[in-house]
Amino acid sequence: MSELVTNRIHASATKLGLPHLAKTLRELTDRADTEAMGYLEFLDLVLEEELAVRDERRFRAGLRLSKLPHHKTLDDYDFSFQPDLDPRKVRDLATLAFVQAKANVALLGPPGVGKTHIAVSLAVAACRAGFTVYFTTLDDMVRHLTAADAIGRLARKLQTYLRPTVLVIDEVGYQPLERPEANLVFQVISKRYEKGSTLLTSNKGFGEWGQVFGDEVLATAILDRLLHHCDVVPINGPSYRLKNRLTAIENVA
């Protein structure tokens, strides 16, 4: 390809908003020459490369907006340390069929067993698939909604938690709520019902949610909407954090 034609394609690619093509044009044409590609094969290569770059850019932008605390995947999760947890059930969730169905997932178990890790891994997979994701702890969500309500902006702030395709609510049950706070949680769960997926983690069994939300009737109303379409994953094994702490102590000793 002549230098003149290369420069023209480079300029056109830049104007069309195809920065990857503009940057890698020489590399792509050299590959086409080496592999003796036909015109359609070369066009397919160019489009596939550009789409891959755009998908990766969209994915990274989605991760930034998601507020996820980390970006761990299921490959980083040690299923062997939780023998009572069926890896197949978790990997089935990673197909994101529950997101397509606008269903929910509840990960239940004591602190340190990896509930947040699995929740984040599923959220990362959803983000990779093009779904919008938002992560919050229950305490942070209630605090922000309460502050917005106090200044007459509750409806606007609710959109933060209603808009995403997947809402991750972490640490349900670590702090008991007052009834007005529990009512804010009910509004989020109720308005998301069959409109988006809610993925939550909790150290409390559902039978204890009346204490968490300070009202048995309100807790029942929340659970009614949450569990109608929901995969419940109990994780009752040992704590990863305790395991790591004991390992560190043994190494020092």
From TrEMBL:
Belongs to the IS21/IS1162 putative ATP-binding protein family. Gene3D superfamilies: P-loop containing nucleotide triphosphate hydrolases. Pfam families: IstB_IS21. Keywords: ATP-binding, Nucleotide-binding. Residues 101-233 form the AAA+ ATPase domain. InterPro entries: AAA+_ATPase, DNAC/IstB-like, IstB, IstB_ATP-bd, P-loop_NTPase. This is ATPase AAA. CDD domains: AAA (cd00009).
